[in-house]
Design a protein that fits this description.
Strand content: 15-25%
Shape: elongated
């Protein structure tokens, strides 16, 4: 009985260590989102560019769009920005959710980097981001014409992500919804 008393904590530590080892090998960009194939959360917020104007999810009803969650303080957002500009230039409507950012910082970011967004909602408190399951920036969602989230990309978009996943899915959803 004495040996079991000492052996049990050792076994418990080994089991927990095993779980930790497996967890450390997982790619955070591959975390499945419970929101995929669900209706997109509805929201309405002041526009970043004009706080008197309200923008929200109803603005992209009936369209296949991207919603990109970004912030001026986000280094990875700067990394993906030119990919977003290129996709916008190809006719992909991209809506922005400026997440936990000061309005002046977000506006300065867009002035210095160019603005690929149809509009930007200003989510200073991060409450809308919580509804969307955001736990970091950048995150990008593809939303279909019926208002359902069809894909979630965690982390910065690369041109390879855009060409191999985002653009083909947008085109497929546009064809399906006609």
């Amino acid at each position: 009985m004495k040996r079991l008393r000492y052996l049990l904590p050792l076994i418990l530590i080994m089991v927990l260590g095993g779980f930790m080892m497996v967890g450390l090998t997982l790619d955070p960009r591959r975390v499945p989102s419970p929101l995929v194939d669900q209706p997109a959360p509805r929201f309405q917020l002041p526009a970043l560019e004009d706080p008197e104007r309200l923008v929200g999810s109803s603005d992209f009803d009936g369209e296949v769009v991207l919603l990109n969650i970004w912030a001026s303080w986000c280094v990875s957002c700067r990394q993906e920005h030119q990919v977003l500009v290129a996709m916008a230039n190809r006719g992909v409507p991209i809506y922005g959710l400026n997440y936990k950012d000061e309005r002046s910082d977000g506006l300065n970011y867009l002035r210095s980097m160019s603005n690929p967004y149809v509009w930007n909602a200003h989510d200073l408190e991060g409450r809308v981001g919580i509804d969307w399951g955001v736990y970091g920036t950048p995150e990008t969602f593809i939303i279909d014409r019926q208002g359902r989230i069809r894909y979630k990309h965690i982390g910065p978009l690369s041109w390879q992500d855009a060409q191999n996943t985002i653009l083909p899915m947008v085109e497929q959803l546009r064809r399906e919804s006609l």
